[in-house]
Structures are given as C-alpha cells and as structure tokens.
Amino acid sequence: MSNFLNKIYDARDAGETRRVYDDWATSYEAELADQGYATPARCAAALRKYARDTDAPILDFGCGTGLSGQALQKAGFQVIDGVDLSPGMLAVARDKGVYRSLDQIEAGAALPFDDGAYPLMSAVGAIGAGAAPAGAFHTLMRNLPKRGLLVFSLNGRTLQEHAYEGAMSEWTDCGAAQLLFRKDGPHLPGIDLNATVYVIEKS
C-alpha cells in the first residue's frame, strides 16, 4: 500500500486532508481493494436490516469515490445523495452513476439542505482519525429527523480516541437516540485493521 493512508492519518487540518484525498483519488479504490476493504458492505447490510423504507432518500456523508454508494445501492437503497470535501474524490464518484446528486462541502460547515431532509444517513469511514472530527457526528444527528437512522463506522485507530464514541454517548445516554446495532469486524484485513459498525436511531 502507498503512503497515502499514513498521510491521511497524519493530516493536521481540513485543507491538508482535502489535498491528500484529491491526490489519492485515482488510486484510492485499487489500493483499498488490495487490502480487502470490507466496511462499505458491512455498513450497507447493517442499515438495510433496520431501514423501514429503502426508497427513502439517503445521505452518504463523506462519500469519497462512491464505494459506499455502490454498497448501499447493492443493498437495495434507491435514492442516494453524496457529499464530500474532496473534489477529486467526487469526480470519481460521479462517474459511477450511483448518486442522484453529489455536492462538495466544507469541513465544519452546515450541511447544504434543510433539517430532516434525509431519514437515512451513512458515514462509512467518514468520521474519525484522518477524516471528519467527532463534531461531525453531532451535525448529522441534529439534521436527522425523529426516527431517522444513521449508520457509521469507527476504525480501530479512531476508537483509541475516546471523543468519537463519546459523541455517540452524548445522544444515547440521555435518550435522545438509541443504539440499535454495534459490531466489530474487518475494515482493511490486509493491514489487520478492524472497524466497528453502528446503527443509531434518533428518538
């Protein structure tokens, strides 16, 4: 594997993260495939287990090159919109023909649509070390409507930083959301890295 993975984990700010992903866009999928990238399919299957309507629009947050969108489509979801901070990644995603719409977003900015617009959301490897900070979880949850579902993953490196599961606990401990699913499993088996997949429902 190239040094892109190390670079992304070492990125110090949103601008650097965007530059690394832009540079990585053309080789990203082949490199992750070589490592057995398993998380998109795991997340899609977990969301499918709890989703009441696969025709409902789903927001794929941090969609990257569209591997997560492909997995969601394969799991039966019909209307998928993607957002990401990297224009290079979005260009690759656009060629897949999976997404109804794709938009570039700025790190830390409000999401470019009304609250409650998406009863389903996914953040596949999009929150954590080398990706969005823990605060992005709160952004998604605030935007989710009542009884809306969010599937997301936290890899083993991210789980060493307590802020990420702590953000989820801020919602579940007070009853503002319920954790429906949590399971550890393979993320990048080629480098022996696991990830935990979660499905959370807003109360």
Automatic annotation (TrEMBL):
The keyword Nucleus does not apply. Keywords: Methyltransferase, S-adenosyl-L-methionine, Transferase. Pfam families: Methyltransf_11. Gene3D superfamilies: Vaccinia Virus protein VP39. One of its GO terms (biological process) is methylation. GO terms for molecular function: methyltransferase activity. Signal peptide: none annotated. The keyword S-adenosyl-L-methionine applies. Residues 59-152 form the Methyltransferase type domain. It comes from the Bacteria. CDD domains: AdoMet_MTases. Transmembrane segments: none annotated. This is Methyltransferase domain-containing protein.
